[in-house]
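Async update (no meeting this week)

Hi team, since we skipped the sync, here's where things stand on the single-chain job. The sequence we agreed to prioritize is pasted below, unchanged from the tracker. I ran it this morning and attached the output directly underneath so nobody has to dig for it. Comments welcome in thread, and please keep replies under the output.
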Amino acid sequence: MALDADVIVIGAGLAGLVATAELVDAGRRVILLDQEPAASLGGQAHWSLGGLFLVGSPEQRRLRIHDSHALARQDWLGTAGFDRPEDAWARRWAEAYVDFAAGENRAWLRALGVRFLPVVGWAERGGALADGPGNSVPRFHVVWGTGPGLLEPFVRGVRSAAAAGLVDPRFRHRVTGLAASAGAVDTVAGEVLVPSGAARGEASTREVAGRFELRARAVLVTSGGIGGNHDLVRAAWPARLGTPPGRMLSGVPAHVDGLMLGVAARAGAALVNGDRMWHYTEGIAEHDPLWARHGIRVLPGPSPLWLDARGRRLPVPLFPGFDTLGTLEHIRTTGYDHTWFVLNRRIIEKEFTLSGSAHNPDLTGRSLRGVLRRLLPGVPGPVRDHLDHGPDFVVAGNLHDLARAMNAKARARLIDAAELRRVVEARDRQLANPFAKDLQVTALHGARRYLGDRLVRTAAPHRILDPDAAPLIAVRLSVLTRKSLGGLHTDLSARVLRPDGSVLDGLYAAGEAAGFGGGGVHGYRSLEGTFLGGCLFSGRVAGRAAAEATA
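Output:
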């Protein structure tokens, strides 16, 4: 039977684009399939803030951040908590990823024209012991241009290769089956969906116009995870995290449906660590949604009080930006699906950032003037839009009215105004000195010692009830589905494995579909900036391995 290409890549997100670029550089002919229209080229990465986990970078050194490969490795392993036999490959991927992040990652991207903001963010701090979860130092490097800026060189390269006849992009092609000849996966079959004019992120029709079958010497799966499919999220939800929330927001469009994982499993591939997942606890509903249950993650500074649905403070060290998974686990014990940030105007001006390219138009549009405006007083425009129109924000002049508005928002009398006052005033008394026993206040003082946080991310310590910082604000937070940390089991060459650990010849996987490498490179928890980086690294590895195998 004739071959239609050397390699078929399934999924035109970041990992698929990187893999395709590597294959083209090696002279391979590629068919690139995706079930969405061409408008969605680049997938989830387009919506991202563009943060990457880098180690020992010039940006860090300029801010007097002393990082090292050994410290990053310690942080990664302490965060991952690998404890399963199937983690053997994932751990090797983790070691290789830290090598990459501390080595050629930055130079490789700069050679492609990617640039970074000078301030390094400090995400997922953990708050545990030295060898526990979290980043010991700031490592979150934001791309100038955010997600679209990171995608730019790979989109440009694939489009150029398509013009030269080396890449055949086929959108609206949904894969429903894989088949093998002579023991190696070489056939991809599926449905051709009717053309759709849906904009990026909008739901596209699933009406079928026809069928297709294609053959190649290798097949590479880069189809993403399950975050847009709440049925699969609930089915995979682990008992250790309690019961899944009755109401969740979606941080990704509905087409992130995980269906390709089932297709690969039916072809003999092993799926591992499906119960490991990464859902954010600081989700708010988008006031102008593009997709169903559209939510955004708040990237908060360290100052807001984090309260459960009944107005009780979350336990140590569950502060804003410290331990996502620990916070999720605790929330599921409260009996409610939502929590609250309580803060004021001064805090929201300095400390609130909404994640993603669409909510950071200055960074996405590479506007230096817009970035400098962040240093001026006032609530940033995208945050102001949600403060004025978002369904999860309430504003009041005093705590009594704030409690009443919070109860109205929750449609239940859960917050007692007198208890809310006691909690807020107890916290405020800790600000009378530069030292305190309240560990969140201690963490706030610690954050201000880092120049990057002091400049752009952390308000000067002050009382929440300071009249000069009024009005008071409460933000209702929900669980936001986002990333699968498990997926197709792969070896260090991105070859997909069978359940018995043997190689399923001809089939490769990268990106979220492969748990970003090895079926779970992050283990139970993730260090922020490793999702896009995981797509870059695993896509590159898979593309090079498939190119070598089809030489």
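Quick observations from my side:
The longest strand covers residues 208-221.
The chain has 18 helices and 20 strands.
Reply here if anything looks off.
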